Amino acid sequence: MIATYSHLVDEDVDNAFAALAGVELPESDRASESPEPVQCGQCHCVMPPGSRFCARCGMTLTVEAAESLNTVIRAAEAVISNPNDPEVLTILLEARARMAMKGGGET
Ligand SMILES: [Zn+2]
User: Fold this and answer.
1) Which domain of life, per UniProt (predicted)?
2) How far is the CA of 87 from the centre of ligand 1 (A)?
């Protein structure tokens, strides 16, 4: 029982650190590849399956896209509060590269 919970906690911590570092961990139960069209929660524009961002208003459409965006925002905030720390700058650059890789797909 306790082993089950501590396993979950360990995994959460791993995921959180991976997200902070801009690294993507393999996740078997990730439901990001739904074949259904996605509707934007903000402007209700319907986007093709697999869309990560709304083409109309720029809203994130998947948990993954939101996480990527949050990673960049967190990294940017870390750079703002520690502008002389080279480590946070590296995290920001990695997050930006990751974002560009995922965001710039087909139209
Ligand atoms: Zn939208």
Assistant:
1) Archaea
2) 34
What pLDDT tens digit does each residue of the chain (107 aa) get?
A: 555 555 556 667 676 666 677 766 555 445 555 578 999 999 999 999 989 999 999 999 998 889 888 888 888 888 889 888 888 888 888 877 877 776 544 44
In the reported structure, the alpha carbon of residue 46 is separated from the centroid of ligand 1 by a whole-number distance in angstroms of 8
Rg of the chain over Cα atoms, rounded to whole angstroms, equals 16
Rounded Cα–Cα distance for residues 47 and 49 (Å) = 7
- Distance CA(4)–CA(14), nearest Å, equals 15
How close is the Cα of 47 to the center of ligand 1, in Å? 9
Q: How far apart are CA 68 and CA 23, in angstroms?
A: 10
Q: Which residue has the tokens 């911590």?
A: 13
**71 closest CA partner among 31, 15, 7:** 15
- β-bridge partners, 38: 47
